[in-house]
Amino acid sequence: MLNVERIRADFPALARQVHGKPLVFLDSAASSQKPVQVLEAMDRIYRECYANVHRGIYAFSEEATLAYESARDKVASFINAPFREEVIFTRNTTEAINLVAYAWGRSHIRPGDRILLTQMEHHSNIVPWQLLAQEKGAELIYLPITDDGLLNLEQLDNLLDDRVKLVAFTLMSNVLGTINPAKEIIQKAHAVGAVVLVDAAQAVPHLPVDVQELDCDFLAFSGHKMCGPTGIGVLYGKEALLQEMPPFLGGGDMIRRVEWESATWNSLPWKFEAGTPAFVEGVGLGAAVDYLRGIGMEAIAAHERELTAYAMERLGSLPGLRIVGPPAHQRGGVVAFTFRDIHPHDLAHLLDLEGVAVRAGHHCAQPLHRRLGLTATVRASFYLYNTHQEVDRLVEALEQAAKALGR
Ligand code: C6P
After folding, report:
1. pLDDT tens across 370-401, in order?
2. How far is the CA of 191 from the CAs of 129, 185, 229, in angstroms?
3. pLDDT, tens digit, for every residue of 306-319?
4. Across all residues in the chain, what is the average pLDDT?
5. Could you give the CA distance from residue 73 to residue 81 in angstroms, rounded to a whole number?
6. What is the pTM of this model?
7. CA of 95, closest atom in ligand 1
8. For the chain, what is the radius of gyration of the CA atoms?
9. 49, 216, 227, 364: which one is catalytic?
10. Is 122 in the pocket of ligand 1 (CB under 6 A)?
């Protein structure tokens, strides 16, 4: 069991009052709060050894470079990447997926090829593939979901054939909460020769993720959802694929030698990190990894599972509340719902007045909402610092909102 009270003491923002009420922060799926350990690690760089990395032949720069590059080692070990060179720092999940769509996609996808996505993808894992497909004359196909919000795996075998060159899917849905059977999907995709990208934006912060066990070709996630800062994300890629891919962005740091007419590329991972990197943020992400590991990903996942089951039970007992997605044992700490005929934005506003921060809208998953017959939902999402009392506050605030609106 987690010592949640002790964990909460690490997050200064959680002590805040909002509209005169103690903050209940239930929007970590959008972006998590930050522990002092991360803030201090970044502050230390700015105060003690701030200088551009990979360039200076002086102690400050060497210290900053060491701190940045050791963050890469921490991330590699966190996801069990075989080689540190396979960890590319990007701005976020979105940029990591775009990197693959541009650098791998433009050199491998041809007219008539198919790209297989699922109906539960975030826009970040749809739009880059639409752009690629339009440019190359390729076709996007979608693995459907069931009415319970699970992937319809029976359809997978029908859709997978040698026309499918890439399969890209989310490990955990940011709306339904569904945790997908990634290993099975990856094995089946590999059997037809497809390359697989896993969107792990909602998974790496909350569950143990092992890229070798998954055997995925690419995996993308964001620092800001896992107690780290904004502006830093990760693309893991298998070395052989990254080696043969052309660069994504050109500029400083990613080159070995530049002539007037041409250039050669730096070795991995720097071939894909053009320009001054977000190295302070990289160090912050390294500190976030240390923090999460110190608590233990299994323990964090177990805490969220327990809290989600409690939240689903309590929310499910409110008449007129419809939760989307599967039962608690098949999902992570995300619960999206509609409540009577109250518009999700009105609901989120009334909850805010009670100090309860939730997200309302389509959560960057419009096609999924359309598939569910909805335009918007309210979403409560949980992390290691949330408590049962906060779930109770959410339920009370919902009851109060319904009363205030006479619904
Ligand atoms: N979802 C949410 O509130 P970025 O914005 O690049 O850090 O992450 C994009 C992204 C990709 N895939 C999934 C499954 C995601 O959930 C997200 C981000 C946030 O649900 C912000 S829209």
Report:
1. 999 999 999 999 999 999 999 999 999 999 99
2. 22, 10, 38
3. 999 999 999 999 99
4. 97
5. 9
6. 0.98
7. 6
8. 22
9. 364
10. yes
- For ligand 1, say whether the CB of 381 is within 6 Å of any of its atoms: no
Q: What is the chain's length? A: 407
Nearest protein Cα to ligand 1, atom 21: 30
Among candidates 231, 365, 278, which has minimal Cα distance to 53? 278
Rounded CA separation 17/4 (Å): 19
Whether 364 is catalytic is: yes
Give distance in angstroms: CA of 30 to centre of ligand 1. 6
Closest ligand 1 atom, residue 359 Cα: 3
Q: Could you give the count of Cα atoms lying within 13 Å of 368 in the half-sphere of its Cβ?
A: 33
- Domains of the chain, with CATH numbers? 4-27+296-404 (3.90.1150.10), 49-294 (3.40.640.10)
Task: Please classify residue 291 by burial: count the beta carbons closer than 10 Å to its beta carbon, then call 0-12 exposed, 13-18 middle and 19+ buried.
Answer: buried
Report whether 206 contacts 332 (CB < 8 A).
Answer: yes
28 lines ligand 1 (CB under 6 A): no
Give the span between the Cα atoms of 34 and 229, in whole angstroms: 8
Tokens of 303: 């805490």
